[in-house]
Amino acid sequence: MNAAQTTLIFSTQDGRMLSCKRWFISIMVFNFNALILLLFGLGFLGCFQAQNPTLAMETPSKVHVSEINEQNELVNWLDKMSVKYARYKLSYPKDGIIHAKGTAAAGKNLVRVNIIEINRKVNPSLEIKPQTGSSYLNSRVKIKTIASKNNAIAAINGGYFKPQTGVPLGALMIDNELLTGPIYKRAAIGFNSDGTYSVGKTDIKFYLQNKKINIKVDNINQPRMLSTYTLLYNDRWGAKSPPPPKYGLNVVIQNGMVKGMFHEAVPISKGDMVISAPSAIAKSLLGQKKLSLKIEYPKAFEKSEHIVSGGPFLIKDGEIYIDTNEEKLSAIGGRNPRTMIGYTKNNDLIMVTVDGREKHSVGMSLYEGAQFMKKLGCENAINLDGGSSSVMYINGVVTNLPPETGGIPIAGAITVVQKQITATGKENTDEM
Question: Are 119 and 96 in contact (CB under 8 A)?
Answer without folding.
Answer: yes
